[in-house]
Amino acid sequence: MRRLIIIILGLFTSSVTAAAPSTQPVLDRFNYIIGTQDFNPSYHFTTEPALLEAARAIQAMGSNTIKFGFTPTSRSGERANFKSLADYARLDPTRRAMLEMPFANYILWAHTFAEVNWHDGLSEDERNREYHELYDFASYLLKTYSGTGKTFFIGHWEGDWLLRGKGKKDVIPTPVAMQGMTDWFNARQQAIDDAKRDTPHHNVEMFNYAEVNLVRIGMEGKPCLTTDVIPKTNVDYVSYSSYDCESDPKELTAALSFIESHMQPKPSIKGKRVFIGEYGFPAYKFSPQQQERKSRDLMIAGLRWGCPFILYWEMYNNEVKDGHQQGFWLIDDKNTKQPIYNTHYAFYQWAHQFIDGYQREHNSPPSFAEFSSHGADFLEHLAP
Fold first, then answer.
1. What angle do CA 250, 211, 329 make, to 5 degrees?
2. Radius of gyration of the chain from its Cα atoms, rounded to whole angstroms
């Protein structure tokens, strides 16, 4: 199975050009699109830190993509231990170990220690502090992981909640806040673009993304990040935390197209630039079988649309209410692999065999579009 790693060296997605050969160990860079993430697990089963243990579980499942956070909090003591995102990446043993694991694609929430407040407008000082911390973080990753074949996507948590306040869907953002957020996005994009320009590196890639989470209200004509901020930015990608439309595949794909229609063109990146950064059907609402079926329907819809990534929330559940696990999981708190875990595992097994067979027949790996189409077909016919 792992021999396909050598076969597909250099292929990431339709949007990324193959880099020069590296002297580093060969990395499986094929983008399997379907993936999951690792945020604040509420349980674990070994003596390793929970984040690192969950990352190993993601790797063991067959994925080469991981999403996790560089989001310092005073509660964890991280602000006392580190002074910047680059410090965090360099000095935190857990995150450093995760960065050194053989993942090809890293989707990272990167919230700066600068803690700028753009809601009342982004001042020049705030812009500079945000810019320089992101620039240093990006430069560190590009230098440290040069030659590894890794790709980093640098973004943030759900932006519509950042704009309005968490859960405050009916709040109308002020023009000042929307302009401040626009300036914040553009400063972050410029920092990453400049770091890529200034930092010697090879065979490593990096992109900036914004994350939206209230798209349905935008489709209804109400102000939101998608309609009032994204068009004024030049972000590389947009992540959609898709809980507001995830239950209806037709509504979901309409929302993806709606987001895409509000992005500035970027000819340097081929293919779709909207991905599903979060979706999930918690066990407190859905049976394991319903959780699997609804998740599989969403995966199929995202693959048919052309999403670069479709990321399930998450490997180990992180939400506990009144002492009860809410059940956003692939592996539950009893260390039981759920049906939706088995679907992910089966998908990776199929993907490895499909790519190997395609390579043998065509003497080249499948295109992103071919893989997406065949992957959707596989999931449609997968026995529950």
1. 70
2. 20
pTM exceeds 0.85: yes
Q: Cα separations (Å) of 99 from 61, 67, 85, 104, 346?
A: 18, 11, 13, 10, 26
**Tokens 């063991």 identify what position?**
60
Q: Cβ distance 99 to 106 under 8 Å?
A: yes
Tokens of 112: 């700066």
CA 186, CA 165: separation in Å to the nearest integer? 21
Dihedral sign of CA atoms 182, 188, 193, 198 in order: positive
What domains are defined for the chain?
4-380 (3.20.20.80)
Q: 148-168: buried (b, 16+ CB within 10 Å) or exposed (e) per residue? A: bbbbbbbbbbbbbbbbbeeee
What is the Cα–Cα distance from 14 to 24, expressed in whole angstroms? 23
Q: Going residue by residue through the chain (384 aa), what tens digit of pLDDT does each one get?
A: 444 433 333 433 333 333 333 344 568 999 999 999 999 999 999 999 999 999 999 999 999 999 999 987 654 555 567 899 999 999 999 999 999 999 999 999 999 999 899 999 999 999 999 999 999 999 999 999 999 999 999 999 999 999 999 999 999 999 999 999 999 999 999 999 999 999 999 999 999 999 999 999 999 999 999 999 999 999 999 999 999 999 999 999 999 999 999 999 999 999 999 999 999 999 999 999 999 999 999 999 999 999 999 999 999 999 999 999 999 999 999 999 999 999 999 999 999 999 999 999 999 999 999 999 999 999 999 977
Q: How many CA atoms lie within 13 A of 7 on its CB side?
A: 19
Locate 288 and state its tokens.
Answer: 């394991």
Instruction: Answer for the pair 379, 32: CB distance below 8 angstroms, yes or no.
Output: no
Chain centroid to Cα 375, Å, comes to 19
Contacts of 112 (CB under 8 A, 6+ apart): 84, 85, 129, 130, 133, 134
- Helix 288-305 to helix 249-261 angle, to the nearest 10 degrees? 40
User: What is the distance of C-alpha 127 from the center of its chain?
Assistant: 25
Q: Are 288 and 339 in contact (CB under 8 A)?
A: yes
